[in-house]
Amino acid sequence: MSGIDEIFRRAKEGRPLFVNREALRPEYVPATLPFRDAQTKAIAQVLAPILRGSKPSNLLLYGKTGTGKTAVTNYVLSKLKAEANTSDLILAYVNTRLADGEYRTLADFAKFLDLRKEKQIPLTGLAIGEVVDRISDNIKSNKKKVVLVLDEIDYLVKLFGDDILYAFTRSGERLAPGFLALVGISNDLKFKEGLDPRVLSSLSEEELVFPPYTVDELREILTERAKMAFRPSVASSAAINMCAAIAGSEHGDARRAIDLLRIAGEVAEREGLSEIDESCIRRASDKMEHDRVDEAIRSLPVQNKAILLAVSMFNGGTNTGELYIAYSNLCKKIGVETLTQRRMSGILGDLDLLGLVEASVVSKGRRGRTKKIQLLIGKDALEKTFSEDTTFGAAN
Ligand SMILES: Nc1ncnc2c1ncn2[C@@H]1O[C@H](COP(=O)(O)OP(=O)(O)OP(=O)(O)O)[C@@H](O)[C@H]1O
Ligand SMILES: [Mg+2]
Fold it and tell me: Which of 6, 196, 225, 230 meets the CB 3.0–4.6 Å disulfide criterion with 234?
């Protein structure tokens, strides 16, 4: 008998476990954001001057992923919007990763200024400088008072540099009597290194840190979300504790905690269970790790993949010399060019930046320095992805 009958039987018999799946979606913004009072107030304090027509300080928000930066900022913006009752007051929000490029970032911003409607800024075609000029002229001549939130600003800076930021942070007098205050959000502090010092000091007039959530805080956040999302008694406190503990094991990431609970609920529902048990959560966690690894690996160039696979052959870490031998053998086996050890080291650095391996320099006393290299992702998940890869499928 095929498994398909069993799947259909379970689907018919099982009661749905969710009453409101949306409440566990990443985009969902809850009405209150517990444990973020201090950050909510601090952002409100910085932006409040705009209500009486004064320019707020620029603000830089940072903190690890899933610590509530986007949720809190959007919450404050919506409150501010409700208070602001003049049309020359503009609260713009652009995610620079989703916009994916300088032009699209500016074009998305222009929508908030109604410049797109006026067909002043087409979807493509103008030079960046021209777009910046049109935006600046529009702010100036209409005396607009603008706050622009640039979420995931590190993407913009890493991929396209800081030209736009330079233009906007230096443009004070050009915009008067209008103004533009910037709020930058990032989960990666390294992006600061890519900024002109003048841009950095201007952008970080005010800074605010979002700390990771503790496991106890994650537990409370999950409890609230679970109440909205599931029928009563689907997510026991033991299940919630386990999700909070897993999500808090690296750093307190609320997104990961919420995703884990949602996926565990989906697993339980598919199995026709009446509640989420430990095995559902384990499977959900494995699936998330696999998806994360899969996504990160699939888009890598073939040499980066080969080096990553070579790293995974060593349990408990290795060094550059050993790794180079393993990598060279692997290249021969699968028939791709072998790079020099120096180039391999460069690529290791990229893999380190992506969080796939750790390649830290350790001192060996008089014998000089070497790299301690180890895998940072689950080996099972990695092997599964590689086994589905056309070049590497036969290699391991
Ligand atoms: N204090 C909180 N209470 C309830 N839910 C929260 C809280 N903080 C964050 N969340 C939820 O966790 C998820 C992730 O939060 P958010 O998107 O704000 O993270 P972030 O800091 O912007 O992360 P990233 O750096 O990856 O963009 C969202 O679904 C959000 O609603
Ligand atoms: Mg965010």
Answer: 230
| pTM of the full structure | 0.84
Question: How far is residue 95's CA from residue 98's CA, in Å, rounded to a whole number?
Answer: 6
Q: If DSSP codes are grouped into helix, strand and coil, which group holds residue 117?
A: coil
pLDDT tens digits along 36-67: 999 999 999 999 999 999 999 999 999 999 99
Q: What pLDDT score does 367 carry?
A: 64
Ligand 1 in reach of 68 Cβ (< 6 A): yes
Domain 37-210 CATH class label = alpha beta
CATH topology of domain 300-387: Arc Repressor Mutant, subunit A (1.10.10)
| Residue 61 near residue 73 (C-beta atoms within 8 A) | yes
In the predicted model, is pLDDT for residue 248 greater than 80? yes
* Residues pairing with 373 in the sheet: 318, 359
Task: Answer whether 262's CB lies under 8 Å from 275's CB.
Answer: no
**Domain spanning 213-296, CATH architecture:** Orthogonal Bundle (1.10)
